[in-house]
Amino acid sequence: MNHLSDLFLSPFQDFLFMRHALVACLALALGCGPVGVLLVLRRMSLVGDALSHAVLPGAALGFLISGLSLYAMTLGGLAVGLAVALLAGAVTRLTVLREDASFAALYLISLASGVLLISLRGSNIDLIHVLFGTILAVDDAALILVASITTATLLILALIYRPLIVECFDPGFLRSVGGRGAAMHFIFLVLVVLNLVAGFRALGTLMAVGMMMVPAVSARFWARQVWSTALVAVGIAMLSGYTGLLLSFHANLPSGPAIILTAGLCYVVSVVFGVHGSIYGRHRKGEHLEG
Amino acid sequence: MTAVVGPNGSGKSTLLKGITGILRPLGGHIERGGLRISQIAYLPQQAEIDRSFPITVLDLVALGLWHRLGMFGGMKKDLWEQAGQALASVGLEGFERRAIGELSAGQFQRVLFARVLLQDCPVILLDEPFTAIDTRTTADLLDVVQRWHAENRTIIAVLHNFDQVRSYFPKTLMIAREPIGWGNTTDILTPENLQLARQMSEAWDESAAACRRSQA
Q1: Domain of A34, in residue numbers
Q2: Which of B19, B35, B53, B124 has the highest number of chain A CBs within 10 A, making it the mutation to test binding with A?
């Protein structure tokens, strides 16, 4: 019994930074879960990825101006992320390019300028911090930021849940009843950027999107409605956060990749054994409904 | 009840989209006789619905209540019952909890009709509602349409099956890029008119100048 608690509890009991990291992960999971599920449903899985890279130059700018300041980097990331989302939307609307194509072009431009900016000043260690994050150095201010973003995300999602869902699966109907589809789309993109920015401090810009997408994609195999899928995604994200932190503590691994790899393991299990549409589920003889 | 007929590309769908306000006219304006756009129910030809979306049949039907609930209004028990009744009246009782991905094309069209039913609008626009739908489902859905007609609703439907038009729709509008005729179905669906429509300038001109004819 003692041995078990050594393994699973004492890292968090003994070290403040582990507690901080855990709370940050749980808060991130709460916000990223539903946002990720909606991204998957809107067939925008890779847009989240693109946006997470787009955040980089903003964070780099903040870093150049005021060093490793939480607020400067967060504000910078937020501003550039939103700018890329807006620009991509504008290019999609005004030209023949589809949304994924315009996102791809813009995020690469953004990523390149970010790497350039960081290499101008600062050493490679800094670049690695920005890219991969330092969840074990999450301080009180960062925690408050993550928690605020999560709270705002959940409140806004609750508010625009219905039009957002309808915009996802039947945009024509929303238009015909006069719902504001474009506005919903934009608010949603803002939420995506906000959550990525919340995540990048802890997990790094490259890994932040992992907390959003991997649990969401896995959850699709376990639930059949939007809200239940989101719940499962939150559950998987929380579990990955906790297990990943333990792994990184005991095996002395970097926390970001440990967390995302744990989520990746959940993904593999879901793909193979999930209840709905998994490899196993498809090959099992389905029950044939009468009538 | 008015049927809109005409060859492909003659502008039938564009006409309906204009009426619902999805497309704005390039010139002129559309007179809706004092109706708000929210009083017009519209069932598009190929609804851009993601059929793999995880939503239940009943939830989809309940969207018909949008005008009464708006973005935030909560569903009450009696509203759920109404949605259930709408579903039952298109012959899909017991399908409430199914996911929409499990339905056949015909069943799915019934569900969309149930949603229109719940929208409870004085004007209903249907764009090729019976394309790729089997005879029995078509018959059932035509019954629903006739019930709407009996409730004094205006129904405008784009159709290709002239037998359906003749037996169910007293009025017909025939268009082939421009109006060919509008009136009693028997007067409009004449061999001469059909011939005219068939001759619709299929020749399209790559470098066509903007139309200068005065707006009719």
Answers
A1: 2-273
A2: B53
User: How distant is the Cα of B135 from the closest Cα of chain A, in angstroms?
Assistant: 19
Strand-pair partners of B181: B174
Q: Residues near A10 by Cβ (< 8 Å), separated by ≥ 6?
A: none
Asked if the Cβ–Cβ distance from B55 to A160 is below 8 Å, we say no
The DSSP bridge partners found for residue B173 are B4, B182
How many domains does the structure of chain A reveal? 1
Helix (H, G, I), strand (E, B) or coil at B171: strand
Nearest CA in chain A to B18: A176
Question: Which domains does chain B possess?
Answer: 2-198 (3.40.50.300)
Residue A165, chain B, CB below 8 Å: the answer is: yes
Q: Is residue A283 part of a domain?
A: no
Selecting from B40, B94, B99 the residue whose C-beta is nearest the C-beta of A224 gives B99
Backbone angles phi, psi at B36, to 5 degrees: -80, 155
Residues A226 and B32: their CA atoms lie apart, in Å, by 37
Distance CA B144, CA A37 (A): 37
pLDDT, one tens digit per residue, over B161-214 is 888 888 888 888 888 887 888 888 888 888 888 887 777 655 555 555 666 655
Whether residue A278 is contained in a domain is answered as no
Domain membership flag for residue A288: no
Q: What are phi and psi of A199, to 5 degrees?
A: -80, -25
Query: What's the CATH code of the domain at A193?
Result: 1.10.3470.10
Nearest by CB to residue A177, choosing from B44, B67, B72, is B67
State the ipTM, two decimals: 0.73
Alpha-carbon distance of A205 to A250, in angstroms, equals 24
Please report whether residue A284 resides in a domain. no
pLDDT above 90: percentage of residues in chain A: 28
To test the contact with chain A by mutation, choose from B45, B57, B66, B102 the residue with the greatest count of A C-beta atoms within 10 A, namely B66
Chain A residues lying within 8 Å of B22, measured CB to CB: 172, 175-176
Q: Are B170 and B1 in contact (CB under 8 A)?
A: yes
pLDDT per residue as tens digits for the range B93-102? 888 888 888 8
